[in-house]
Amino acid sequence: MFIGHFALALGAKKYAPQASLGILFLACQLADIIWPNLVLLGIETLRVEPGITVMTPLEFVHYPYSHSLIAILLWSAVFAVLYWLLTRSGTKAAIVIGTLVLSHWILDVITHRPDMPITLSDSPRIGLGLWNSLGLAVSVELLLFAAGVWLYVRHTRALDRIGSIGFWSLVAFLVVIYAGNLLGPPPPSATAVAWSAQALWLVIAWGFWVDRHRLGRPPQAMANARG
């Protein structure tokens, strides 16, 4: 998934309103932040194999340290504890952050072919293969993203034009990148994929910037809106 991961981060704002959207983005994509750097270092491996699935030409050959269940459970615990220690935002927020890190593996298992490792030894591997059905995969991911955007907008409000225009520009940017990945040509090499993945930091920074210009809606305001 791509925008599916961001969808969960947007929706998680409801459950951790004190956490910046940038932190939520970092949590949901932590595996994909670690992974390209390990590829560039030669520790993990991928190949560009057009046609390997209808959604992506990437063959994830070896990536147990960033994407195995055991590794992501460890990254989840470390990230949640660090967040709790540095922000003192409470146990609930830390649990939400840790769950977001773990959600990356769960969503990838749903979408990937059987290439998602469970252990650090890179086996066994599982995957339900949603990426083998273009129409179903796109529908699921776009619906998930729409729900995440709706939850974020429902539970926050813009303080100024940056909070409004900046946020909707971010939403549009993610959709455009998603469409480009689907419709564009295969990347020229694994190295190019790893370097382009560094653009995730731009989205994370954008999340921090936008979130500073939005405010959580108090429970009473939510009740009035429903009424």
Structural class: mainly alpha
Radius of gyration: 18 Å
The number of helices is: 11
Taking strands numbered 1, 2, ... along the chain, how are they ordered across the largest sheet?
1-2
What is the makeup of the main sheet?
2 strands, antiparallel
Would you give an account of this structure?
The structure is a single chain. The protein has one domain (3-226). It has helices at residues 3-12, 21-28, 30-40, 64-67, 69-87, 91-111, 134-155, 161-183, 190-196, 200-211, 219-226; strands at residues 45-48, 58-62, 116-117, 125-126, 156-158, 214-216. The strands form 3 sheets. The chain has a two-stranded antiparallel ribbon with strand order 1-2. Helix 1 (3-12) packs antiparallel against helix 6 (91-111), helix 3 packs across helix 9 (190-196) and helix 8 (161-183) packs antiparallel against helix 10. By secondary structure, the chain is mainly α.
Q: What descriptors fit this protein?
A:
single chain, 227 residues, mainly alpha, two-stranded antiparallel sheet, 11 helices, 6 strands, disordered C terminus
Question: Which SSEs are present, and which pair or pack?
Answer:
Blueprint lengths: L2 H10 L8 H8 L1 H11 L4 E4 L9 E5 L1 H4 L1 H19 L3 H21 L4 E2 L7 E2 L7 H22 E3 L2 H23 L6 H7 L3 H12 L2 E3 L2 H8 L1
Antiparallel strand pairs: 1-2, 3-4, 5-6
Helix pairs in contact: 1-2, 1-6, 1-7, 2-6, 2-10, 3-9, 5-6, 8-10
